[in-house]
Amino acid sequence: MATFLRDEKVLAADVIAVQEPWKNQLQHTSHQPATASFQLLYPTKGVRQEQNQESDPPPPGVCLFVSKKLDPSTWSCQLISQDYQLLKLRKTYRDSDWTDLFIHNIYNRPGSDTLERLRCELARRPHGEHVVLGDMNAHHSLWGGVGTKADTEAEKLLEITNEWGLELANEEGKPTWTRNDQASVIDLTFVSSSLVDRLIQCERPDDVEHSSDHFPIRTALDIKTPAASQQMRRNWNATDNKKLVQKIEENVQVKDLSQADTQQIEAQYQELLESVQSSIEDSTPWAKPSTWSNSDFDDECKAAVKEVRRLRRRHTKTQDPFDWMCYSIARNRKARLIKKKLSRAHRRRVQQVIEDGPQGMWRLAKWQIARTGVNNSNFE
């Protein structure tokens, strides 16, 4: 996953559906190198089915990466099981009305009831448009090519797709899984019949490095999804104060309003407002926020980073052990400083939420939803 999720062609996608993701042994999460551009949707930790069950539940078989280019208020994700995620997002086609698209991310674990769950979810949305994809662990000549022996899982999957009008998008006979001299087609994509005419491509991109025995599948639909809008703001720290004061003094004219009526006062107010606004436009540039920006990363942190980079360049040039020692000391000092700064800022925000009471918790919840989308929500 490491090389796959760093490929520019992969990061251009709106949604990345992963089956059998890498599991972090220290935390309940997966590998996420693209935090600036994608939101990771990793299933919550499973629970044991029985109290006397000694073994832990299997690790999640699926996860989703949703691009932050999409408006987070227009999509939501429902966790059906540890091997089944259902993503709902708004879409339109050539300026028609906005409708919902349901993306089913599935890992059909051997011996599981995932396909029956798929049947139930499709039955709950009989008029919706669906994309069903994932590692189906099913073999059939319809997608595996001539000579492929059909198994029970494939027959069950075909029964479900035929019942709900889903069309196979895979290229017949092109392997999606290889290991040594073995190959098969088990990573499948099905789309609703109403989406077939809008299917641009569904192919195995051999130009993408994936470092896995499963090949990625690139699927593109001719649809439009709502883009996240970013509100413009002024970079007040870069204000030229001298120029601001000068512009205000030039534009603002003080008048005697002791005998003025309401209309004159209102006109003077509008004139003052326009003068101040014009002065701000001339003296304060627009901010250019970066996806990596952090308001808690203050000037002291930036100075520490610059110092470490300077010492590293000096050691690269001289290869002197003393320069390496100076670089190591500065690097460790920088790490401690940044950790302390960010921890204190987080504690301040938590304390502020506590002091604000329920209203502060509500604002925090709204901010989280607006930032990451509505995850693990129930929808029809």
Automatic annotation (TrEMBL):
Stretches assigned to the Endonuclease/exonuclease/phosphatase domain: 102-217
One Gene Ontology molecular-function label: catalytic activity
Protein name: Endonuclease/exonuclease/phosphatase domain-containing protein
Source organism of the structure: Penicillium antarcticum
